[in-house]
Amino acid sequence: MEKTPFKAESKRMLEMMIHSVYSHREIFLRELISNASDAIDKLYYKTLSDNTLAFEKDNYYIKVVAEKTTRTLTILDTGIGMTKDELENNLGVIAQSGSLVFKTENEAQDGHDIIGQFGVGFYSAFMVADLVTVTSRALGSETAFKWESSGVDGYTIVPAEKDVVGTEVILKIKASTEDENYDDYLDEYRLRSLIKKYSDFIRYPIKMELTQQRPKEGSEDEFEEYREEQTINSMVPIWRKNKNELTDEDYENFYMEKHYGFDKPLKHIHISVDGAVRYNAILYIPEKTPFDYYTKEYEKGLELYSNGVLIMSKSPDLLPDYYSFVKGMVDSEDLSLNISREILQQDKQLKLIAKNIKSKITSQLQSLLKDDREKYEAFYKAFGTQLKYGVYSDYGSNKDVLQDLLMFYTAKEKKMVTLEEYVSRMPEDQKYIYYASGETYERIDKLPQTELVSEKGYEILYFIEDVDEFAIKMLMTYKDREFKSVSSGDLGIAADESQEQTAEAANENQSLFDTMKDILAERVKDVRISKRLKNHPVCLTADGEITIEMEKVLKTMPNNPNIKAEKVLEININHEVFQSLKAAFEHDKEKLRLYTNLLYNQALLIEGLPIHDPVEFTNDICKIMV
Asked: Which of 180, 181, 362, 562 has the fewest Cβ atoms within 10 angstroms?
Protein backbone atom coordinates (compact mmCIF):
# COMPACT_ATOMS: atom_id res chain seq x y z
CA MET A 1 0.00 0.00 0.00
CA GLU A 2 1.43 3.35 -1.02
CA LYS A 3 2.10 5.81 1.74
CA THR A 4 1.18 9.48 1.56
CA PRO A 5 3.92 11.83 2.73
CA PHE A 6 3.10 14.33 5.46
CA LYS A 7 2.08 17.73 4.13
CA ALA A 8 4.54 19.55 6.35
CA GLU A 9 7.59 21.49 5.27
CA SER A 10 10.02 18.64 5.81
CA LYS A 11 10.88 15.44 7.59
CA ARG A 12 12.66 17.61 10.14
CA MET A 13 9.36 19.25 11.15
CA LEU A 14 7.93 16.01 12.51
CA GLU A 15 11.23 15.12 14.12
CA MET A 16 11.13 18.43 15.94
CA MET A 17 7.58 17.74 17.14
CA ILE A 18 8.65 14.37 18.52
CA HIS A 19 12.03 15.24 20.01
CA SER A 20 12.07 18.94 20.86
CA VAL A 21 8.62 20.28 21.72
CA TYR A 22 7.86 18.18 24.79
CA SER A 23 9.99 18.05 27.93
CA HIS A 24 8.65 14.68 29.19
CA ARG A 25 7.58 11.63 27.19
CA GLU A 26 4.71 10.93 29.57
CA ILE A 27 2.96 14.04 28.21
CA PHE A 28 1.73 11.97 25.24
CA LEU A 29 -1.08 10.49 27.33
CA ARG A 30 -2.28 13.92 28.40
CA GLU A 31 -2.34 15.05 24.77
CA LEU A 32 -4.27 12.04 23.46
CA ILE A 33 -6.82 12.19 26.30
CA SER A 34 -7.27 15.93 25.68
CA ASN A 35 -7.90 15.21 22.00
CA ALA A 36 -10.49 12.58 22.99
CA SER A 37 -12.17 15.08 25.30
CA ASP A 38 -12.24 17.61 22.45
CA ALA A 39 -13.99 15.04 20.23
CA ILE A 40 -16.79 14.62 22.77
CA ASP A 41 -16.99 18.41 23.25
CA LYS A 42 -17.45 18.85 19.49
CA LEU A 43 -20.35 16.43 19.57
CA TYR A 44 -21.86 18.47 22.37
CA TYR A 45 -21.54 21.63 20.27
CA LYS A 46 -23.33 19.92 17.41
CA THR A 47 -26.30 19.10 19.64
CA LEU A 48 -26.72 22.79 20.45
CA SER A 49 -27.60 23.60 16.84
CA ASP A 50 -29.13 20.32 15.67
CA ASN A 51 -32.46 19.38 17.23
CA THR A 52 -32.24 15.85 15.83
CA LEU A 53 -29.28 15.12 18.07
CA ALA A 54 -29.41 14.47 21.80
CA PHE A 55 -26.43 14.61 24.11
CA GLU A 56 -26.70 12.08 26.92
CA LYS A 57 -23.54 12.70 28.90
CA ASP A 58 -23.53 9.23 30.47
CA ASN A 59 -23.06 7.68 27.02
CA TYR A 60 -19.81 9.51 26.38
CA TYR A 61 -16.48 8.47 27.83
CA ILE A 62 -12.79 7.90 27.17
CA LYS A 63 -11.22 4.48 27.64
CA VAL A 64 -7.59 3.48 28.09
CA VAL A 65 -6.60 -0.14 27.42
CA ALA A 66 -3.10 -1.58 27.87
CA GLU A 67 -2.15 -4.96 26.36
CA LYS A 68 1.27 -6.12 27.50
CA THR A 69 1.31 -9.20 25.27
CA THR A 70 0.89 -7.16 22.07
CA ARG A 71 2.63 -4.04 23.52
CA THR A 72 -0.32 -1.88 22.50
CA LEU A 73 -1.92 1.02 24.30
CA THR A 74 -5.36 2.10 23.12
CA ILE A 75 -7.11 5.40 23.81
CA LEU A 76 -10.68 5.40 22.51
CA ASP A 77 -13.51 7.89 22.76
CA THR A 78 -17.20 8.07 21.86
CA GLY A 79 -16.88 11.54 20.42
CA ILE A 80 -17.73 13.08 17.05
CA GLY A 81 -15.25 10.99 15.02
CA MET A 82 -13.46 11.96 11.82
CA THR A 83 -14.19 11.48 8.12
CA LYS A 84 -11.50 10.46 5.65
CA ASP A 85 -10.93 14.10 4.71
CA GLU A 86 -10.66 15.09 8.36
CA LEU A 87 -8.14 12.34 9.00
CA GLU A 88 -6.21 13.65 6.00
CA ASN A 89 -6.35 17.27 7.12
CA ASN A 90 -6.02 16.83 10.88
CA LEU A 91 -3.43 14.04 11.04
CA GLY A 92 -1.77 14.33 7.63
CA VAL A 93 -0.85 18.00 8.04
CA ILE A 94 1.41 18.71 10.97
CA ALA A 95 0.24 21.67 13.10
CA GLN A 96 -3.21 21.65 11.44
CA SER A 97 -5.66 21.72 14.36
CA GLY A 98 -9.13 20.37 13.78
CA SER A 99 -10.09 21.63 17.22
CA LEU A 100 -8.96 25.16 16.40
CA VAL A 101 -10.92 25.16 13.14
CA PHE A 102 -14.00 23.84 14.93
CA LYS A 103 -13.62 26.37 17.72
CA THR A 104 -13.33 29.24 15.23
CA GLU A 105 -16.40 28.13 13.28
CA ASN A 106 -18.48 27.79 16.43
CA GLU A 107 -17.10 30.73 18.37
CA ALA A 108 -20.45 32.39 18.89
CA GLN A 109 -22.04 29.36 20.57
CA ASP A 110 -22.07 28.70 24.26
CA GLY A 111 -20.86 25.42 25.65
CA HIS A 112 -17.73 23.56 26.67
CA ASP A 113 -14.34 24.95 25.74
CA ILE A 114 -12.19 23.01 23.30
CA ILE A 115 -8.80 22.17 24.81
CA GLY A 116 -6.67 21.56 21.71
CA GLN A 117 -5.62 24.44 19.47
CA PHE A 118 -2.27 23.70 17.88
CA GLY A 119 -2.66 20.29 16.24
CA VAL A 120 0.70 18.90 17.32
CA GLY A 121 -0.35 17.07 20.50
CA PHE A 122 -1.26 13.94 18.54
CA TYR A 123 2.31 13.57 17.25
CA SER A 124 3.64 13.24 20.81
CA ALA A 125 2.45 9.62 20.44
CA PHE A 126 5.53 8.94 18.30
CA MET A 127 7.74 9.64 21.31
CA VAL A 128 6.67 6.29 22.76
CA ALA A 129 5.28 4.35 19.79
CA ASP A 130 6.80 2.71 16.70
CA LEU A 131 3.42 2.57 15.02
CA VAL A 132 0.28 4.67 15.50
CA THR A 133 -3.08 3.51 14.19
CA VAL A 134 -6.18 5.71 14.27
CA THR A 135 -9.56 4.18 13.41
CA SER A 136 -12.42 6.67 13.31
CA ARG A 137 -16.06 6.79 12.34
CA ALA A 138 -17.60 10.23 11.98
CA LEU A 139 -21.03 11.28 13.23
CA GLY A 140 -23.59 10.65 10.46
CA SER A 141 -21.33 8.26 8.53
CA GLU A 142 -21.72 4.54 8.07
CA THR A 143 -18.10 4.11 7.01
CA ALA A 144 -14.99 4.16 9.18
CA PHE A 145 -11.42 4.82 8.09
CA LYS A 146 -8.06 3.75 9.43
CA TRP A 147 -5.08 6.13 9.46
CA GLU A 148 -1.71 4.50 10.15
CA SER A 149 1.85 5.76 10.37
CA SER A 150 5.21 4.71 11.74
CA GLY A 151 6.53 8.26 11.75
CA VAL A 152 8.32 10.51 9.33
CA ASP A 153 7.98 8.18 6.32
CA GLY A 154 4.31 9.11 5.90
CA TYR A 155 0.90 7.51 6.47
CA THR A 156 -1.87 5.44 4.89
CA ILE A 157 -5.66 5.81 5.02
CA VAL A 158 -7.92 2.87 4.19
CA PRO A 159 -11.59 1.96 4.86
CA ALA A 160 -12.19 0.07 8.11
CA GLU A 161 -14.88 -1.50 10.25
CA LYS A 162 -16.12 0.29 13.36
CA ASP A 163 -19.50 -0.34 14.98
CA VAL A 164 -19.93 2.97 16.80
CA VAL A 165 -19.17 6.63 16.21
CA GLY A 166 -15.89 7.75 17.72
CA THR A 167 -12.14 7.36 17.47
CA GLU A 168 -9.70 4.69 18.56
CA VAL A 169 -5.97 5.44 18.77
CA ILE A 170 -3.70 2.38 19.07
CA LEU A 171 -0.02 2.85 19.94
CA LYS A 172 2.51 0.08 19.36
CA ILE A 173 4.78 0.88 22.30
CA LYS A 174 8.53 0.88 21.67
CA ALA A 175 10.84 -1.67 23.25
CA SER A 176 12.54 -0.48 26.42
CA THR A 177 16.15 0.70 26.30
CA GLU A 178 18.82 1.49 28.88
CA ASP A 179 17.80 5.16 28.72
CA GLU A 180 14.01 4.80 28.70
CA ASN A 181 11.65 2.27 30.26
CA TYR A 182 8.80 2.22 27.73
CA ASP A 183 7.22 -0.72 29.59
CA ASP A 184 5.97 1.91 32.05
CA TYR A 185 3.37 2.98 29.49
CA LEU A 186 1.83 -0.49 29.54
CA ASP A 187 1.66 -0.73 33.33
CA GLU A 188 -1.86 -0.10 34.59
CA TYR A 189 -0.78 1.59 37.82
CA ARG A 190 1.65 3.88 36.01
CA LEU A 191 -1.05 4.78 33.49
CA ARG A 192 -3.50 5.40 36.28
CA SER A 193 -1.07 7.77 38.03
CA LEU A 194 -0.47 9.71 34.79
CA ILE A 195 -4.22 10.08 34.22
CA LYS A 196 -4.67 11.33 37.79
CA LYS A 197 -1.74 13.69 37.44
CA TYR A 198 -2.57 15.35 34.13
CA SER A 199 -6.18 14.57 33.25
CA ASP A 200 -7.98 14.12 36.55
CA PHE A 201 -10.39 16.94 35.80
CA ILE A 202 -11.27 16.11 32.21
CA ARG A 203 -15.07 16.46 32.26
CA TYR A 204 -15.81 13.00 30.83
CA PRO A 205 -15.15 9.62 32.49
CA ILE A 206 -11.76 8.11 31.73
CA LYS A 207 -12.18 4.37 32.19
CA MET A 208 -9.66 1.57 32.68
CA GLU A 209 -9.81 -2.06 33.63
CA LEU A 210 -7.84 -2.49 36.83
CA THR A 211 -6.64 -5.57 38.64
CA GLN A 212 -8.39 -6.04 41.99
CA GLN A 213 -8.21 -8.61 44.74
CA ARG A 214 -11.01 -10.35 46.64
CA PRO A 215 -11.20 -13.29 49.06
CA LYS A 216 -11.67 -16.63 47.37
CA GLU A 217 -15.10 -18.07 47.84
CA GLY A 218 -15.21 -20.01 51.09
CA SER A 219 -11.82 -18.73 52.27
CA GLU A 220 -10.80 -15.77 54.43
CA ASP A 221 -7.04 -16.20 54.00
CA GLU A 222 -6.71 -16.78 50.25
CA PHE A 223 -7.28 -14.08 47.64
CA GLU A 224 -7.87 -14.11 43.92
CA GLU A 225 -7.33 -11.42 41.30
CA TYR A 226 -10.07 -10.16 39.03
CA ARG A 227 -10.45 -7.34 36.51
CA GLU A 228 -12.92 -4.53 36.96
CA GLU A 229 -13.54 -1.40 34.92
CA GLN A 230 -13.26 1.79 36.94
CA THR A 231 -13.49 5.50 36.27
CA ILE A 232 -10.06 6.93 37.04
CA ASN A 233 -10.61 10.67 36.97
CA SER A 234 -12.55 12.93 39.33
CA MET A 235 -14.17 14.82 36.41
CA VAL A 236 -15.72 17.73 38.31
CA PRO A 237 -12.91 19.70 39.97
CA ILE A 238 -13.56 21.09 43.42
CA TRP A 239 -12.67 24.61 42.27
CA ARG A 240 -15.60 24.70 39.86
CA LYS A 241 -18.10 23.87 42.55
CA ASN A 242 -20.06 26.53 44.38
CA LYS A 243 -18.32 27.55 47.60
CA ASN A 244 -21.59 27.11 49.47
CA GLU A 245 -21.59 23.42 48.51
CA LEU A 246 -18.18 22.79 50.04
CA THR A 247 -17.14 22.21 53.64
CA ASP A 248 -13.79 22.66 55.38
CA GLU A 249 -13.44 18.90 55.21
CA ASP A 250 -13.81 18.98 51.41
CA TYR A 251 -10.96 21.47 51.13
CA GLU A 252 -8.80 19.50 53.57
CA ASN A 253 -9.42 16.28 51.63
CA PHE A 254 -8.38 17.99 48.39
CA TYR A 255 -5.21 19.22 50.14
CA MET A 256 -4.34 15.65 51.11
CA GLU A 257 -5.34 14.13 47.75
CA LYS A 258 -3.05 16.52 45.89
CA HIS A 259 -0.19 15.83 48.32
CA TYR A 260 0.31 19.51 49.04
CA GLY A 261 1.51 18.56 52.52
CA PHE A 262 1.23 16.05 55.34
CA ASP A 263 -0.08 18.64 57.77
CA LYS A 264 -3.55 20.13 58.10
CA PRO A 265 -3.80 23.52 56.36
CA LEU A 266 -4.42 26.52 58.59
CA LYS A 267 -6.44 28.37 55.99
CA HIS A 268 -7.85 27.87 52.51
CA ILE A 269 -8.66 30.52 49.92
CA HIS A 270 -11.13 29.76 47.13
CA ILE A 271 -10.99 32.32 44.30
CA SER A 272 -13.30 32.59 41.29
CA VAL A 273 -12.66 35.49 38.94
CA ASP A 274 -14.58 36.32 35.79
CA GLY A 275 -12.88 39.47 34.56
CA ALA A 276 -10.12 40.44 32.14
CA VAL A 277 -8.67 36.99 32.79
CA ARG A 278 -11.00 34.22 33.94
CA TYR A 279 -9.61 31.79 36.45
CA ASN A 280 -10.35 29.69 39.51
CA ALA A 281 -7.91 28.97 42.29
CA ILE A 282 -7.73 27.13 45.58
CA LEU A 283 -4.85 28.18 47.79
CA TYR A 284 -3.69 26.83 51.13
CA ILE A 285 -1.67 28.31 53.96
CA PRO A 286 0.07 25.29 55.55
CA GLU A 287 0.35 24.72 59.27
CA LYS A 288 3.92 23.44 59.31
CA THR A 289 7.15 24.23 57.51
CA PRO A 290 8.09 21.61 54.89
CA PHE A 291 11.28 19.78 55.89
CA ASP A 292 13.13 21.16 52.85
CA TYR A 293 11.61 24.64 52.87
CA TYR A 294 14.83 26.54 53.52
CA THR A 295 16.96 24.43 51.18
CA LYS A 296 17.93 24.84 47.53
CA GLU A 297 15.88 21.75 46.69
CA TYR A 298 12.57 23.37 47.63
CA GLU A 299 10.49 24.42 44.62
CA LYS A 300 7.85 27.07 45.07
CA GLY A 301 4.87 27.37 42.78
CA LEU A 302 1.24 26.51 42.23
CA GLU A 303 -0.18 23.82 39.98
CA LEU A 304 -1.32 25.44 36.74
CA TYR A 305 -4.25 24.01 34.77
CA SER A 306 -5.68 25.08 31.46
CA ASN A 307 -9.35 24.18 31.34
CA GLY A 308 -8.87 21.31 33.79
CA VAL A 309 -5.70 19.87 32.17
CA LEU A 310 -2.48 20.10 34.17
CA ILE A 311 0.06 22.27 32.35
CA MET A 312 2.70 22.81 35.02
CA SER A 313 3.20 21.05 38.36
CA LYS A 314 5.00 24.10 39.75
CA SER A 315 4.37 27.54 38.26
CA PRO A 316 6.76 29.80 40.22
CA ASP A 317 5.55 33.01 38.56
CA LEU A 318 2.19 32.78 40.31
CA LEU A 319 3.69 33.48 43.76
CA PRO A 320 6.12 36.10 45.09
CA ASP A 321 9.05 34.57 46.95
CA TYR A 322 7.81 35.81 50.31
CA TYR A 323 4.63 33.76 49.86
CA SER A 324 6.44 30.70 48.53
CA PHE A 325 4.96 28.61 51.35
CA VAL A 326 1.48 28.82 49.78
CA LYS A 327 0.24 25.61 48.14
CA GLY A 328 -2.58 25.06 45.69
CA MET A 329 -3.64 25.39 42.08
CA VAL A 330 -4.89 27.80 39.44
CA ASP A 331 -7.12 26.89 36.48
CA SER A 332 -7.75 29.31 33.63
CA GLU A 333 -9.34 29.06 30.20
CA ASP A 334 -7.57 32.20 28.98
CA LEU A 335 -3.90 31.22 29.09
CA SER A 336 -1.90 31.67 25.90
CA LEU A 337 0.02 28.42 25.76
CA ASN A 338 2.76 27.45 23.35
CA ILE A 339 2.35 24.49 21.02
CA SER A 340 3.42 21.97 23.66
CA ARG A 341 0.88 23.33 26.14
CA GLU A 342 3.70 23.33 28.68
CA ILE A 343 4.87 26.94 28.49
CA LEU A 344 3.06 30.25 28.32
CA GLN A 345 3.53 32.25 25.13
CA GLN A 346 3.08 35.51 26.98
CA ASP A 347 3.00 36.33 30.66
CA LYS A 348 0.45 39.16 30.69
CA GLN A 349 -2.37 36.87 31.82
CA LEU A 350 -0.15 35.20 34.39
CA LYS A 351 0.92 38.57 35.80
CA LEU A 352 -2.70 39.60 36.26
CA ILE A 353 -3.50 36.34 38.02
CA ALA A 354 -0.35 36.55 40.18
CA LYS A 355 -1.15 40.13 41.22
CA ASN A 356 -4.63 39.17 42.34
CA ILE A 357 -3.38 36.06 44.14
CA LYS A 358 -0.81 38.11 46.05
CA SER A 359 -3.53 40.53 47.14
CA LYS A 360 -5.82 37.67 48.24
CA ILE A 361 -3.10 36.01 50.30
CA THR A 362 -2.21 39.29 52.01
CA SER A 363 -5.86 39.95 52.80
CA GLN A 364 -6.37 36.45 54.23
CA LEU A 365 -3.28 36.72 56.43
CA GLN A 366 -4.45 40.07 57.75
CA SER A 367 -7.87 38.58 58.50
CA LEU A 368 -6.26 35.62 60.24
CA LEU A 369 -4.17 37.98 62.38
CA LYS A 370 -7.24 40.00 63.31
CA ASP A 371 -9.80 37.23 63.79
CA ASP A 372 -7.81 34.19 64.92
CA ARG A 373 -4.66 35.30 66.69
CA GLU A 374 -3.74 31.80 67.88
CA LYS A 375 -3.78 30.41 64.34
CA TYR A 376 -1.84 33.38 63.01
CA GLU A 377 0.87 32.95 65.62
CA ALA A 378 1.12 29.26 64.67
CA PHE A 379 1.51 30.33 61.03
CA TYR A 380 4.06 33.00 61.97
CA LYS A 381 6.11 30.52 63.96
CA ALA A 382 6.38 28.41 60.81
CA PHE A 383 6.78 31.10 58.14
CA GLY A 384 7.47 34.45 59.82
CA THR A 385 11.13 34.24 58.81
CA GLN A 386 10.07 34.14 55.15
CA LEU A 387 8.03 37.33 55.57
CA LYS A 388 11.07 39.06 57.06
CA TYR A 389 13.19 37.93 54.10
CA GLY A 390 10.46 39.40 51.92
CA VAL A 391 10.86 42.79 53.63
CA TYR A 392 14.64 42.66 53.20
CA SER A 393 14.81 41.35 49.64
CA ASP A 394 14.41 43.37 46.44
CA TYR A 395 15.71 46.50 48.18
CA GLY A 396 12.63 46.72 50.40
CA SER A 397 10.16 47.03 47.53
CA ASN A 398 7.69 44.74 49.33
CA LYS A 399 7.91 46.26 52.79
CA ASP A 400 4.58 48.11 52.57
CA VAL A 401 2.82 44.83 51.79
CA LEU A 402 4.43 42.90 54.65
CA GLN A 403 5.13 45.31 57.51
CA ASP A 404 1.74 44.86 59.18
CA LEU A 405 2.17 41.07 59.14
CA LEU A 406 5.41 41.12 61.16
CA MET A 407 5.52 40.13 64.83
CA PHE A 408 8.21 40.28 67.52
CA TYR A 409 8.46 39.16 71.12
CA THR A 410 8.64 41.73 73.91
CA ALA A 411 9.57 41.06 77.53
CA LYS A 412 7.09 43.69 78.69
CA GLU A 413 4.13 41.81 77.17
CA LYS A 414 5.73 38.35 77.43
CA LYS A 415 4.32 37.53 74.00
CA MET A 416 4.51 38.31 70.27
CA VAL A 417 3.23 41.75 69.22
CA THR A 418 2.76 43.50 65.90
CA LEU A 419 4.42 46.79 65.05
CA GLU A 420 0.97 48.40 65.07
CA GLU A 421 0.37 47.16 68.63
CA TYR A 422 3.80 48.40 69.74
CA VAL A 423 3.35 51.90 68.31
CA SER A 424 -0.21 52.24 69.61
CA ARG A 425 0.94 52.05 73.25
CA MET A 426 4.15 54.09 73.03
CA PRO A 427 4.40 56.83 75.70
CA GLU A 428 4.19 60.37 74.36
CA ASP A 429 7.84 61.11 75.17
CA GLN A 430 9.14 57.99 73.36
CA LYS A 431 10.74 58.94 70.04
CA TYR A 432 11.88 55.56 68.71
CA ILE A 433 10.86 51.93 68.35
CA TYR A 434 13.54 50.19 70.42
CA TYR A 435 14.90 46.74 69.76
CA ALA A 436 17.60 44.46 71.14
CA SER A 437 19.33 41.59 69.34
CA GLY A 438 20.70 38.34 70.71
CA GLU A 439 20.75 34.60 70.33
CA THR A 440 17.83 33.92 72.70
CA TYR A 441 15.19 35.87 74.59
CA GLU A 442 16.88 34.87 77.86
CA ARG A 443 20.23 36.32 76.77
CA ILE A 444 18.62 39.55 75.61
CA ASP A 445 16.90 39.86 79.00
CA LYS A 446 20.34 40.01 80.64
CA LEU A 447 21.94 42.50 78.24
CA PRO A 448 23.32 45.54 80.08
CA GLN A 449 22.35 47.79 77.13
CA THR A 450 18.62 47.37 77.87
CA GLU A 451 18.80 48.89 81.37
CA LEU A 452 18.13 52.56 80.59
CA VAL A 453 15.40 51.91 78.00
CA SER A 454 13.64 49.50 80.36
CA GLU A 455 13.95 51.93 83.27
CA LYS A 456 12.18 54.55 81.18
CA GLY A 457 9.28 52.12 80.75
CA TYR A 458 9.81 51.80 77.02
CA GLU A 459 8.98 48.50 75.33
CA ILE A 460 11.80 46.64 73.58
CA LEU A 461 11.35 44.32 70.60
CA TYR A 462 13.52 41.19 70.88
CA PHE A 463 15.32 40.07 67.71
CA ILE A 464 16.70 36.51 67.76
CA GLU A 465 16.83 35.69 64.03
CA ASP A 466 19.69 36.66 61.72
CA VAL A 467 17.36 38.41 59.28
CA ASP A 468 15.59 40.58 61.89
CA GLU A 469 17.92 43.57 61.95
CA PHE A 470 18.47 43.52 58.20
CA ALA A 471 14.71 43.59 57.63
CA ILE A 472 14.24 46.45 60.08
CA LYS A 473 17.07 48.42 58.51
CA MET A 474 15.26 48.07 55.18
CA LEU A 475 11.95 49.04 56.78
CA MET A 476 13.64 52.12 58.35
CA THR A 477 10.42 53.48 59.89
CA TYR A 478 6.96 52.38 60.88
CA LYS A 479 4.24 55.03 61.05
CA ASP A 480 6.93 57.72 61.02
CA ARG A 481 8.75 56.18 63.99
CA GLU A 482 12.38 55.19 63.45
CA PHE A 483 13.82 51.94 64.77
CA LYS A 484 16.64 52.23 67.29
CA SER A 485 18.91 49.51 68.67
CA VAL A 486 19.48 49.62 72.44
CA SER A 487 23.16 49.20 71.54
CA SER A 488 23.32 52.24 69.28
CA GLY A 489 25.54 55.14 70.28
CA ASP A 490 22.69 57.61 70.78
CA LEU A 491 19.49 56.25 72.32
CA GLY A 492 17.60 59.49 71.77
CA ILE A 493 16.54 59.71 75.42
CA ALA A 494 16.48 63.17 76.98
CA ALA A 495 19.20 63.73 79.55
CA ASP A 496 18.20 63.92 83.22
CA GLU A 497 20.19 65.34 86.12
CA SER A 498 22.29 62.21 86.61
CA GLN A 499 23.18 62.14 82.91
CA GLU A 500 24.29 65.76 83.08
CA GLN A 501 26.59 64.80 85.94
CA THR A 502 27.83 61.95 83.77
CA ALA A 503 28.79 64.44 81.06
CA GLU A 504 30.84 66.42 83.58
CA ALA A 505 32.54 63.23 84.74
CA ALA A 506 33.38 62.36 81.15
CA ASN A 507 35.36 65.59 80.79
CA GLU A 508 37.16 65.00 84.07
CA ASN A 509 38.21 61.45 83.11
CA GLN A 510 38.92 61.91 79.42
CA SER A 511 42.60 61.15 79.83
CA LEU A 512 41.76 57.79 81.43
CA PHE A 513 39.47 56.86 78.53
CA ASP A 514 42.00 57.99 75.94
CA THR A 515 44.60 55.75 77.55
CA MET A 516 42.22 52.78 77.57
CA LYS A 517 41.45 53.43 73.90
CA ASP A 518 45.17 53.37 73.11
CA ILE A 519 45.53 50.06 74.96
CA LEU A 520 42.72 48.47 72.92
CA ALA A 521 44.01 50.09 69.72
CA GLU A 522 42.03 49.11 66.60
CA ARG A 523 39.73 46.80 68.56
CA VAL A 524 37.43 49.69 69.47
CA LYS A 525 36.53 53.01 67.95
CA ASP A 526 36.23 54.70 71.34
CA VAL A 527 36.04 54.25 75.11
CA ARG A 528 33.52 56.44 76.88
CA ILE A 529 31.33 56.87 79.94
CA SER A 530 28.03 55.03 79.60
CA LYS A 531 24.74 56.88 79.90
CA ARG A 532 22.72 53.64 79.71
CA LEU A 533 24.32 51.32 82.29
CA LYS A 534 22.83 51.13 85.79
CA ASN A 535 24.08 47.93 87.44
CA HIS A 536 26.60 46.43 85.00
CA PRO A 537 30.19 47.69 84.87
CA VAL A 538 30.74 47.56 81.11
CA CYS A 539 29.14 46.94 77.71
CA LEU A 540 29.84 47.24 74.01
CA THR A 541 27.82 49.48 71.73
CA ALA A 542 28.17 50.39 68.07
CA ASP A 543 28.42 53.62 66.13
CA GLY A 544 27.27 53.58 62.52
CA GLU A 545 24.80 51.45 60.58
CA ILE A 546 26.37 48.05 61.26
CA THR A 547 25.47 46.73 64.69
CA ILE A 548 27.35 44.06 66.59
CA GLU A 549 24.67 41.44 65.78
CA MET A 550 24.84 42.36 62.10
CA GLU A 551 28.62 41.91 62.19
CA LYS A 552 28.13 38.37 63.53
CA VAL A 553 25.78 37.50 60.66
CA LEU A 554 27.87 39.12 57.93
CA LYS A 555 31.03 37.35 59.07
CA THR A 556 29.38 33.98 58.45
CA MET A 557 28.79 34.88 54.81
CA PRO A 558 31.34 34.51 52.02
CA ASN A 559 33.22 37.62 50.91
CA ASN A 560 32.44 39.48 54.16
CA PRO A 561 35.32 38.48 56.49
CA ASN A 562 36.47 42.03 57.24
CA ILE A 563 33.14 43.74 57.90
CA LYS A 564 33.10 45.08 61.45
CA ALA A 565 30.86 47.18 63.62
CA GLU A 566 32.45 50.34 64.98
CA LYS A 567 32.60 49.12 68.58
CA VAL A 568 32.56 51.43 71.56
CA LEU A 569 33.49 50.25 75.06
CA GLU A 570 31.20 51.95 77.57
CA ILE A 571 32.13 52.18 81.25
CA ASN A 572 29.70 52.61 84.15
CA ILE A 573 31.30 55.28 86.35
CA ASN A 574 28.87 54.47 89.19
CA HIS A 575 30.15 50.91 89.48
CA GLU A 576 32.89 49.95 91.98
CA VAL A 577 35.08 48.79 89.07
CA PHE A 578 35.47 52.39 87.90
CA GLN A 579 37.28 53.34 91.14
CA SER A 580 39.77 50.54 90.50
CA LEU A 581 40.32 51.87 86.97
CA LYS A 582 40.99 55.38 88.29
CA ALA A 583 43.42 54.12 90.91
CA ALA A 584 45.31 52.04 88.35
CA PHE A 585 45.44 54.99 85.95
CA GLU A 586 47.01 57.15 88.64
CA HIS A 587 49.41 54.61 90.18
CA ASP A 588 49.90 51.48 88.04
CA LYS A 589 49.71 51.72 84.24
CA GLU A 590 50.39 47.97 83.82
CA LYS A 591 47.43 47.13 86.02
CA LEU A 592 45.30 49.56 83.97
CA ARG A 593 46.26 47.59 80.86
CA LEU A 594 45.24 44.36 82.64
CA TYR A 595 41.88 45.82 83.77
CA THR A 596 41.17 47.31 80.36
CA ASN A 597 41.75 44.01 78.55
CA LEU A 598 39.64 42.13 81.08
CA LEU A 599 36.73 44.57 80.77
CA TYR A 600 36.90 44.45 77.00
CA ASN A 601 36.87 40.63 76.95
CA GLN A 602 34.05 40.65 79.51
CA ALA A 603 32.04 42.88 77.15
CA LEU A 604 32.77 40.51 74.25
CA LEU A 605 31.47 37.56 76.26
CA ILE A 606 28.28 39.42 77.13
CA GLU A 607 27.71 40.00 73.42
CA GLY A 608 28.42 36.39 72.55
CA LEU A 609 31.51 37.35 70.55
CA PRO A 610 34.69 35.25 70.52
CA ILE A 611 37.70 36.32 72.56
CA HIS A 612 40.72 36.87 70.35
CA ASP A 613 43.20 35.16 72.72
CA PRO A 614 41.53 32.88 75.34
CA VAL A 615 44.90 31.88 76.83
CA GLU A 616 45.82 35.50 77.48
CA PHE A 617 42.36 36.08 78.98
CA THR A 618 42.73 33.20 81.45
CA ASN A 619 46.23 34.36 82.36
CA ASP A 620 44.87 37.87 83.04
CA ILE A 621 42.27 36.41 85.42
CA CYS A 622 45.01 34.50 87.24
CA LYS A 623 47.02 37.71 87.65
CA ILE A 624 44.13 39.29 89.54
CA MET A 625 43.76 36.24 91.79
CA VAL A 626 47.37 36.18 92.98
From this structure: 562
